[in-house]
């Protein structure tokens, strides 16, 4: 079973959620060999609730995922923390939405929740908690206390950072970091535009239907990370297309600092 553990279903934080764009994204995910994604949309994206209203109207939710256009979509969220850094939290729909509601007062820069509090709030509920792109220049995690980092379940080998920093150098850096903390590394493409799907993914030895089952398989090491030989062209193409689409929608091209040539978000 192949899953991407860091994906987005909106073009950017400031864009409206588009059901047509979502359907296109799922079709392309499937076309790139994926069986599942973790939908780790930014917690402070515009009208976050629109995503789940559309999913609930159009797709069945069973076990712990939506079945959308042939893809298992596991609910999740990407949270900015006060100390700088992003945390991916994946779990049951109701638990994710409850956490998002709790984070409502902390959606603006300068009011982000601190790392320890986020860990405490997400301790229960069977969440899978992943440290996103721990060595990204603008939003690192490696500077945080080991005692807190060890409460995470894994760290993110991020497709955008592999593109920006090179596979060998980045893999060595994150591998040493995760080993020191006794945590595994999992792959996430950080896709906002479908060309990026398949740049990196996780292939598991067995199928799973719940996040709890997924956590066990990660802990057992029952998976392999696949890095596409076409990663560079996938990520570069996605960034170029994303920038053009944002310009056509009159959105700021640097609103989330994720355009080509800037890998800091």
Automatic annotation (TrEMBL):
InterPro entries: PHP_dom (IPR004013), PHP_domain (IPR052018), Pol/His_phosphatase_N (IPR003141), Pol/histidinol_Pase-like (IPR016195). Residues 3-83 form the Polymerase/histidinol phosphatase N-terminal domain. Gene3D superfamilies: Metal-dependent hydrolases. It comes from the Bacteria. It holds the Pfam family PHP_C. SUPFAM superfamilies: PHP domain-like. Coiled coil: none annotated. PANTHER family: EXONUCLEASE, POLYMERASE_HISTIDINOL PHOSPHATASE N-TERMINAL DOMAIN-CONTAINING PROTEIN. This is Polymerase/histidinol phosphatase N-terminal domain-containing protein. It comes from Paenibacillus vini.
